[in-house]
Amino acid sequence: MARRYDPERRERIIDAAIRVVAADGITGLTHRSVAAEADVPLGSTTYHFGSLDELLIAALRRCNEGFAQAVRESSVFAAPSGQRCGAELADELSRLLGEWFEGERGATELEYELYLAALRRPALRPVAAEWTDGVVELLVRRTDPATARALVALMDGICLQVLLTGGSYDAAYTREMLARVAGA
User: Fold this and answer.
1) Residue 37 near residue 16 (C-beta atoms within 8 A)
2) How far is Cα 115 from Cα 145, in angstroms, rounded to an integer?
3) CA 166 and chain centroid, separation
4) Do 181 and 151 touch, CB atoms closer than 8 A?
5) In this structure, are residues 56 and 117 in contact, taking their beta carbons and an 8 Å threshold?
6) Are 91 and 176 in contact (CB under 8 A)?
């Protein structure tokens, strides 16, 4: 029997893993559950991902891309390098967070569930750090490295509070706190 050529199979497996974690949490993630969700043979999941940590790393990378992409596409950060006033940074970052929270809450919760899984799964820590470092790198185009890192930490904290308390995103509060950190 000839092997079937399926160049998108790996991507479908990652998408299926994200759906499994969204539905059942990380504890529900097994090669078998992902294979069933992706409608592929069990051997395909283990061929592409030798361990569940490898699969979680791929899923976390996929989820992490959303907010970083929004920052990259923002006109405030896409323009040539140079310092911006703290109020402008705060306005744009609070706007981007607001758009992120306006999306499907389940997707936001999933991203943070995968992100926080790094607490118990050391293999995920470098990927969590990649996200932080990537956003800091984008912010450094407009502010100094220490302030950029503090802005990312504050945004993470605000996001966690909103997600964990079931509260709603407060753009005015976020803008004010980001402006304080940014020195506006």
Assistant:
1) yes
2) 22
3) 19
4) yes
5) yes
6) no
Report the b/e string of 162-171 with b at 16+ CB within 10 A: bbeeeeebbe
Please give the backbone phi and psi of residue 183, each rounded to the nearest 5 degrees, phi first.
Answer: 80, 25
What pTM does this model have? 0.81
- Joined tokens for residue 129: 């750090």
Both tokens assigned to 36: 């069933």
Percentage of the chain lying above the pLDDT 70 cut: 93
Q: What sign does the dihedral 38-10-59-32 (CA atoms) show?
A: positive
Q: Which two tokens stand for residue 2?
A: 């000839």
Q: What is the dihedral of CA 46, 50, 56, 57, to 10 degrees?
A: -130
R_g of the chain, CA atoms, integer Å: 19
Four-point Cα dihedral 51, 40, 20, 16, nearest 10 = 90
What is d(CA 68, CA 117) in angstroms, rounded to the nearest whole number? 19
Neighbours of 29 (CB within 10 A): 21
pLDDT digits (tens, 9 = 90+) for 31-48: 999 999 999 999 999 999
